[in-house]
Write a structure and sequence with these properties.
Helices cover about 45% and strands about 25% of the residues. The protein contains nine helices and six strands. Helix 8 packs across helix 9. The model has no long low-confidence stretch (mean pLDDT about 95).
């Protein structure tokens, strides 16, 4: 499983075989069944998760009791509750598998030692965090500046694999509307 992560890291920085061997003990492979949880509200997020195979989502329960998906992660994407992970406080989010998923977890308590042994990984994680932040900003802009139908069409154009893989209610939640409205949009095709 680690080979997928090494390949991903090498898209951003060069990590040779010796460095991969240094990194290996910090990596914990995990498998999650469909609808299984890596994190639930009230728990402390203890790891950052790299998706090797499958799909995860980050969501919270809003004041009306509805699930609000804020992020998806498929192969070669990272996902965590960053606030809970960094500050080791209780999470307000859930991380759930949308399909059977294999991940590599790196524990919060291991990051400093990992960066001490492999300082170049700080650059890798900084670049990943920048990409994640950019995606979050773009999503917020789309939520406020596009109609629901425009959001769906753009998402479908940019990420067609999600539209096929993710249950309709999760996709609707992520795009900011109801599953019924998503059905109407799809019927217009």
């Amino acid at each position: 499983m680690a080979s997928a992560l090494y390949k991903h890291i090498n898209k951003f920085i060069n990590l040779n075989k010796d460095e991969q061997e240094v990194l290996a003990p910090f990596l914990q492979p995990l498998s999650v069944k469909k609808k299984g949880f890596l994190l639930e509200e009230g728990q402390t997020c203890r790891a950052n998760y790299f998706v090797v195979k499958g799909c995860l989502r980050l969501y919270f329960i809003d004041i009306k009791g509805a699930e609000q998906t804020t992020q998806f992660a498929i192969e070669n994407w990272w996902i965590t509750d960053l606030t809970s992970f960094l500050f080791q406080e209780h999470s307000e989010f859930y991380i759930q598998a949308a399909e059977p998923t294999d991940v590599i977890a790196i524990g919060n308590n291991q990051y400093e030692e990992m960066f001490h042994q492999l300082p170049k990984l700080e650059r890798y994680f900084r670049l990943i965090l920048q990409k994640n932040h950019q995606a979050s900003q773009r999503r917020i802009k789309f939520l406020y500046s596009q109609t629901a139908e425009e959001r769906y069409r753009n998402f479908n154009r940019l990420f067609p694999e999600f539209v096929q893989r993710v249950p309709q209610y999760m996709l609707a939640s992520y795009l900011g509307f109801t599953p019924e409205f998503l059905s109407k949009i799809r019927a217009k095709k």
